[in-house]
């Protein structure tokens, strides 16, 4: 009887440990298992009045950053191109960098790689701004990293 309890206890501990390890690994490796941008559709990214020039911030509810520079508004993925980690909390406004907390890749506010291990820039997405200032990011439409939507 003691051996049955020991075996059950061992299997229970093993199962809990495996679940905990899997959760920790999935947080680091990203939900898509690679360095590809996570797919999403059209999402609202707030109003242009809340996005200052020189600012990049995560879009709530989507794997995307919204940014604004002197040339206009742009959007890019929050998925690190190294191993697919989510970088939505890695924005450093003080030095205008995006830092992947999994393996310390560093990207510029335009998504260019400044320090590896990532070797590819972040994907950019099409952005529209409605007449009332509402920003829409089109996750299914990639564009060149130089594309900006003018602010009128």
Short description:
By secondary structure, this protein is an alpha+beta fold. The protein is 18% helix and 32% strand.
Can you describe what's shown?
A hairpin with a 6-residue loop joins strand 6 and strand 7 (106-108). The protein has 2 domains: 1-30; 42-143, Rieske [2Fe-2S] iron-sulphur domain (Rieske Iron-sulfur Protein, 3-layer Sandwich), CATH 2.102.10. The chain has one helix at 2-29; strands at 42-47, 55-58, 64-69, 72-77, 91-92, 97-99, 106-108, 113-115, 124-129, 134-143. The chain has 1 helix and 10 strands; from the N terminus they run H-E-E-E-E-E-E-E-E-E-E. It is of the alpha+beta class and 152 residues long. It is globular. It has a 6-stranded antiparallel beta sheet, with no helix packed on it. A 4-stranded antiparallel beta sheet has the order 5-6-7-8, with no helix packed on it.
Question: What is the topological layout?
Answer:
Layout (H helix, E strand, L loop, with lengths): L1 H28 L12 E6 L7 E4 L5 E6 L2 E6 L13 E2 L4 E3 L6 E3 L4 E3 L8 E6 L4 E10 L9
Antiparallel strand pairs: 1-10, 2-3, 3-4, 4-9, 5-6, 6-7, 7-8, 9-10
Query: Which strand order do you get reading across the main beta sheet?
Result: 1-10-9-4-3-2
Helix content percent band: 10-25%
The main pleated sheet reads as: 6 strands, antiparallel
Q: Would you list the SSEs in sequence order as H and E?
A: HEEEEEEEEEE
Roughly how many Å is the radius of gyration?
A: 20 Å
Number of domain units: 2
């Amino acid at each position: 009887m003691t051996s049955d309890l020991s075996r059950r206890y061992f299997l229970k501990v093993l199962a809990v440990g495996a679940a905990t390890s899997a959760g920790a690994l999935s947080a680091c490796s990203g939900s898509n298992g690679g360095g590809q941008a996570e797919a999403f559709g059209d999402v609202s990214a707030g109003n242009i009045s809340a996005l200052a020039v020189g600012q990049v911030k995560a879009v709530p509810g989507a794997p995307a950053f919204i940014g604004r520079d002197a040339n206009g508004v742009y959007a890019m993925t929050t998925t690190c191109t190294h191993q697919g980690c989510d970088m939505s909390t890695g924005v450093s406004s003080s030095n205008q960098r995006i830092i992947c907390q999994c393996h310390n890749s560093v990207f510029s506010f335009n998504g260019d790689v400044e320090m590896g291990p990532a070797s590819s820039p972040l994907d950019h997405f099409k952005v529209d701004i409605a007449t009332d200032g509402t920003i829409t990011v089109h996750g299914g439409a990639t564009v060149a990293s130089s594309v900006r939507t003018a602010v009128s």
